Amino acid sequence: MAESKREKIAIIGSGMIGHCWATLFLGGGYQVCMYDISQDRVDAALNAVQFKLNKLKDEGLLHGTLSVEERLANLSTTTDLQECLAGAIYAQESAVEDLQLKTDLFMKIDSLTGPDTILASSTSTLAPSKFTENLKHRENCLVVHPVNPPVYCPLTELIPAPWTKPAVVDITYSLMNAIGQSPIKLTREVDGFAINRLQYAILAEAWRMVHSGVISTADVNKVISEGLGLRWAFYGPLEVSHMNADGIKHHNERYGQGVIRVVNDFGPTPTFFEPETLEKIASDLNQKIPIEKLAAHRAWREHQLGAIAQLKRKLAKEKPADL
After folding, report:
1. Would you say the pTM of this structure is higher than 0.85?
2. pLDDT digits (tens, 9 = 90+) for 72-89
3. Which of 9, 222, 236, 269 is the most buried (most CB within 10 A)?
4. Looking at 101-232, which runs of residues are DSSP E strands?
């Protein structure tokens, strides 16, 4: 039988992201306790974790050596925040994106933990300094933001507050690796972190081009799904530029002025509420992905992400040793 760890992980908030975190930490062999404000919520989360574990097993994507049954034996739930946090070495908060709520919640979490517990938030938009400044143990706080769904998208970005201890970032980085994630470190806070700064840059230009009539909604989506996204699945944008010439320096010599010209032509930031453009894009998207079928499309997206994760794992094993 595979060996479980004794260390406890507290999951604060058991919704879509919270129960995914529980699934991931169980893969690392940790004792996991999920907290939420009602028994109905934690019961639903428990069922969701069991479903995800069995699905990952069927896909051959379970991280670690423990069986599904052994993982579930390491999972508990509670509606008592103090019980959830008691003895935890690490707490991952995944409540809604509301600054006041997170501020109040972290004050309570801070009061229930000691100096050795790392306090992490899954927030995608709020800098950690905004809700941890007045905490007793603020040096243990940081943002640990995953890509949704984290069970298939392993990237996790770590963002420290100005007062976060470097050792806390290092320990969290190691912890993410231990549960099968692919962590990145930001050296300081920046609005949007890394994921959303890149994502929003693409979203803004896609919106601008549809707004100006240069391209249709369907075709701007194809630029990513049938083009850039495919090669970005294995190499990032700087690596692609490096390979598109004889190295990045040669790329910049050959294409740099063209890149600057195009970037300077981007135009102002859209409001995303320009009436005609919003109606057009919404109509186009609703034709392809009707609101009443969003759940089915999300499930299909997750299925496809599982297939890509399987392929990437297979290809990683086949990659020549000298690459």
Report:
1. yes
2. 999 999 999 999 999 999
3. 9
4. 118-121, 141-146, 155-160, 182-185
